[in-house]
Amino acid sequence: MRKIISFMHISLDGFVAGPNGEMDWIKADEEIFDYVGKRISESDTALYGRVTYEIMENYWPTAANKPTATKHDIEHSKWYSKVHKVVLSKTMKDTGLTNTKMISDNLSDSIYEIKQSRSASGGSESKDILLFGSPTATHSLMQQNLIDGYWLFVNPIILGQGIPLFVDIKDKIKLKLLTTQPFTCGVTELNYTVERQ
After folding, report:
1. C-beta separation of 12 from 51 below 8 A
2. Where is the Bacterial bifunctional deaminase-reductase C-terminal domain (predicted)?
3. Selection from 131, 110, 114, 137 nearest residue 49 by Cα
């Protein structure tokens, strides 16, 4: 079965955004982009909440065409155009969207179906489904125990307040640390898998 991995930048005190959704504290440089790009290229399905999806749709489809496009912009734009996108939203309709599936209800059943499916590229290998940012979607999936791993980039900052990654957790979630990676900018990657009973 495929796994859902939550990919998130996080402050040292556990916030994924400031009180008004600010993310200007996140450190991301070429070293991180290269590291993340390798892992992302191995996935063929991206999961988003509505707000994050709209941000992505407004930028990535044409990012590679801009005169100031970086290597990262070109690579990620190419990946974004072919990746299968799944969006959790109660308000968006999937009419006219290319390579995109909307989930508006029956969250647990719909996610289970995606996890059971073969990879979107048609191969037999079980590729991870990456959940990008999307705190509200992450909280919904977390509360139903549908996240299989956390790929966290801990930024060297204490925000004191904001949108927390972990909220309304009813039962303990046991994690096993798979890898760590420090970056020269001060960010540390922590890659966890959820230990199922």
Report:
1. no
2. 2-187
3. 137
pLDDT in single tens digits along all 197 residues of the chain = 899 999 999 999 999 999 998 999 999 899 999 999 988 888 889 999 888 888 888 888 888 888 888 888 888 888 888 899 999 988 887 667 778 888 888 888 899 888 887 655 555 556 889 999 888 899 999 988 999 999 999 999 999 999 999 988 888 899 999 999 999 999 999 999 999 87
- 114's CB contacts (< 8 A; 6+ apart) are 2, 45, 86, 101, 129
Q: In sequence order, what are the residues at sequence separation of 6 or more whose Cβ sits closer than 8 angstroms to the Cβ of residue 175? A: 150, 192, 193, 194, 195
Count of positions (residues) in the chain: 197
Give the count of beta carbons closer than 10 Å to the beta carbon of residue 10. 22
Residue 190's domain spans which residues? Answer: 4-194
Number of folded domains in the chain?
Answer: 1
How open is the CA angle 11-194-158, to the nearest 5 degrees? 10
The whole-angstrom separation of Cα 21 and Cα 191 is 24
Q: What CATH number does the domain containing 62 carry?
A: 3.40.430.10
